[in-house]
Design a protein that fits this description.
Layout: E1 6-7, E2 13-14, H1 17-22, H2 35-44, H3 49-61
Antiparallel strand pairs: 1-2
């Protein structure tokens, strides 16, 4: 079975609904992160003090207050 598949300008491919149903391919919703959630990820995933300072600077560039973002600071060693 040969079918034409469209390729959009960003390189994404579009599978026709008929093909998706035949192979059981489901559409999965994606989560779009708010600036606050991105800030939480940046701050909580810092591995040391240097990384945490860099994350704080990035969050401040996002015009957010680091004190209002729920996160865990890295442990001091």
């Amino acid at each position: 079975m040969a079918r034409a598949i469209k390729v959009r300008k960003r390189g994404t491919r579009v599978l026709p609904a008929k093909v998706r149903r035949r192979f059981g391919i489901a559409v999965v919703p994606i989560e779009i992160y708010t600036p606050g959630r991105k800030a939480e990820f940046l701050l909580s995933n810092a591995v040391d003090e240097k990384d945490y300072r860099a994350a704080k600077n990035e969050v401040q560039r996002m015009v957010l207050d680091t004190k209002e973002v729920r996160h865990k600071k890295p442990r001091r060693e």
